[in-house]
Design a protein that fits this description.
With 77 residues, this protein is an alpha+beta fold. It has a single domain, classed as SH3 type barrels. The chain is built from two helices and five strands; from the N terminus they run E-H-E-E-E-H-E. It has a five-stranded antiparallel sheet with strand order 4-3-2-1-5. A hairpin with a 2-residue loop joins strand 3 and strand 4.
Length: 77
Amino acid sequence: MAKQTLYSLSKGRAATVRKFLHDDDIMPIRLRDLGLIEGGSVLALSGGGRGGIASYLIKGAVIALREEDCLNIVVSA
């Protein structure tokens, strides 16, 4: 079974963050600073459209993330 990533969430869908797959150590730290943590909830507000940017509701704040970063965040619905 393929892993579901944050980028695959459609608008209005909620999920729980399971794991970060980034090759570096810096991006997961930045994401955690924004409130995106393992076990935390996230709601997709807009899908990856033009420019590969998607927006999510995380702990009451709207955060826009690049496609390449969202593809490295494993979630479960």
